[in-house]
């Protein structure tokens, strides 16, 4: 039971790290993250329409992996705007990834 409680506490902390990071980046369109190990969000307000390209660039340029919405949406236009980010790793890894995204995303959006 103690191990389970520790996992639940870590996931709760990690979820807050991701949600706070998205909020600092100005991401407002976020699905509730209750009972999952990921946060589902949209970057449509930033004009993003190719989630696969953004995810590939993030992985290549800053070493942060997250999942494009095209893997989860039936409508490719909607999937192009949405993303899923997992918070099942260590708090240190999640914090580092969110910091990297916060620093990197504005430059990528400006180029796109």
Describe the structure.
The chain is mainly α and 112 residues long. It is 54% helix and 11% strand. The protein has helices at residues 2-24, 51-62, 76-79, 91-111; strands at residues 38-42, 67-68, 82-86. The radius of gyration is 14 Å and the shape is globular.
The backbone outline, from C-alpha atoms, is globular
The biggest sheet amounts to: 3 strands, antiparallel
Q: What is the number of helical segments per DSSP (H or I, 4+ residues)?
A: 4
Global Rg? 14 Å
Poorly predicted sequence stretches spanning 5 or more consecutive residues = none
Taken as a percent bin, the fraction of beta residues is: 5-15%
For the biggest β-sheet, the strand order reads: 1-3-2
> What is the rounded distance between the termini?
48 Å
**Sheet/helix structural class:** mainly alpha
Oligomer state equals single chain
How many β-strand stretches?
Answer: 3
Mean pLDDT: 94
Approximate helicity band: 40-55%
Topology order in helix (H) and strand (E) letters = HEHEHEH
List the helices and strands and how they pair.
Elements (H helix, E strand, L loop, with lengths): L1 H23 L13 E5 L8 H12 L4 E2 L7 H4 L2 E5 L4 H21 L1
Helix pairs in contact: 1-4, 2-4
Summary tags:
112 residues, mainly alpha
In a nutshell, what does this entry contain?
With 112 residues, the chain is mainly α.
